[in-house]
Amino acid sequence: MIKLILYFLDFVLCYLKQKRKDYMKIGVVSLGCDKNRVDTEKMLARLLEGGHEFCSDESQADVIIINTCAFTLDAKNESIDEILRAVEEKKERGAKVIVTGCLPQRYGKELSDSLPEVDGFFGTADYDALKVEIDNIAGGERRSVICGEDKYTVKREITTPYHYAYLKIADGCDNHCTYCAIPKIRGRYRSYKEDDLLNEAQELYDQGVKELILIAQDVTRYGIDIYGKPQLLKLLDLLTKIDFKWIRLLYLEPEVVSDELINYIKQNPKVANYMDIPFQHVDSSVLKRMGRHTDEKLTKELAEKVLSSGIALRSSFITGFPGEGESEFEKLYDFINNYKIDYAGFFAYSREEGTPADKLDGHLNERVKELRRKKLYKIQTAVMKEKAAAKMGQTLTVLAEGIDYDRQMFYGRSQFQAPGIDTLIYFTSEGLVNAGDFYEVEILSSDGIDLIGRAK
């Protein structure tokens, strides 16, 4: 009888919800980095609190929201393409279109004037306002709210697989690299309070998250604006009291990576032996023009320390920066070839208006930049194949993530691999394998840069 009453009440609530004039189905496209993903997840939670519903099929959505990225020219073009695609949906069936995030934050009125078909624009900290204004937009009004100030919330609608999630511990950046527009878009570096982060992390753990990935534009400086000095290690001490299997660190600025941090990662069994340190280049003169706070000596010494400690090292590099001659490029090429870091992303310099680098002399043509980028990728691929082959015979703890039906194998990651950007471990098993569980996998061979193994 109780079950019947509950079923009836649920039916009535659903019926009343459908009858609400302000109830809407919302489709969301999130572009750019995982910091932007966290913003999207918190935006979704706000809208859900407003009584709306989300749908994965945009053709069924009453409102289409595009959370944009404006970090590079390619990112801006992708954002514009998604907006124009959504505008076509509006023309066909009347769906409202809302643009949020970095693109309206950076271009504001210019974007609003050039895209009159878009019904609303909201910046990177205007999701509280979006929750309020979305009903007005649905009613036919056009709204634009830029440079607001969201209240911190732990509530999120997780968009990653349930077993891992990102924890954004700070926003903005004070580094002011000459090629980067992030300080103009996101503002000064702002750490979130320890208690808020701990509450959010506990919420994620309670939802089944086993791998917590700390992100910010600069994770290493966490707490410096609140507590007067970096407090990353203290935050890690507090987070490791929550029973996550792995806590992973992304985006560690090289000049702030200390021996203490390296030793902490190596010795704390709950912190993944993995560091993402964006070196960006190795030549001292290029690094100086980039506004980086490192040089060739520091870069090489730090790479040696991390790699010799057994910690997997990922980095990113920009080639084709203004003034990068053949000798400077060859120095970068030799560094990738000789130091053999585990993973690397390579980017052709993207000219961004309003940044100091845009005004530098010595800009290279796009063909040269792309050729250099491909050359770096080629040598890094060779390094990764060599490293993969060297892992034969090792046994690694693997977080299972799914099934590759073409290979007829399961796949997952070890603590030495971050999701979405690094290699995978494919493996067979005589027993049942559940996504989100951990397995001991013996590495039997490699397939290019990926590993092949068998669960014990």
The total of beta strands comes to 19
- Shape annotation: globular
Order of the strands making up the biggest sheet: 2-1-3-4-5-6
Write down the oligomeric state. Answer: single chain
- Quickly give the structural class: alpha/beta
Number of helices: 14
Determine the fraction of residues in helical runs and give it as a percent range. 25-40%
Mean pLDDT: 92
Low-confidence stretches are 1-21
Rg, Cα atoms, Å = 24 Å
Ends apart, CA distance between termini: 49 Å
In this structure, how is the largest beta sheet organized? Answer: 6 strands, parallel
Write out key terms for the chains shown:
456 residues, alpha/beta, 6-stranded parallel β-sheet, globular, disordered N terminus
SSE topology:
Blueprint: H1 2-19, E1 25-30, H2 34-49, E2 53-54, E3 63-68, H3 73-93, E4 96-101, H4 102-114, E5 120-122, H5 127-138, E6 143-145, E7 164-168, E8 170-171, H6 182-186, E9 190-191, H7 194-206, E10 211-215, H8 224-227, H9 232-239, E11 246-249, H10 259-267, E12 271-276, H11 284-290, H12 296-308, E13 312-319, H13 326-339, E14 343-348, H14 366-390, E15 395-404, E16 409-413, E17 425-428, E18 438-447, E19 450-455
Parallel strand pairs: 1-2, 1-3, 3-4, 4-5, 5-6, 7-10, 10-11, 11-12, 12-13, 13-14, 17-19
Antiparallel strand pairs: 8-9, 15-16, 15-18, 16-17, 18-19
Please tell me about this protein's structure.
- With 456 residues, the protein is an alpha/beta fold.
- The chain contains 14 helices and 19 strands.
- Helix 2 (34-49) packs across helix 5.
- The longest helix is centred in the last third of the chain and has 25 residues, at 366-390.
- It is globular and about 60 Å long.
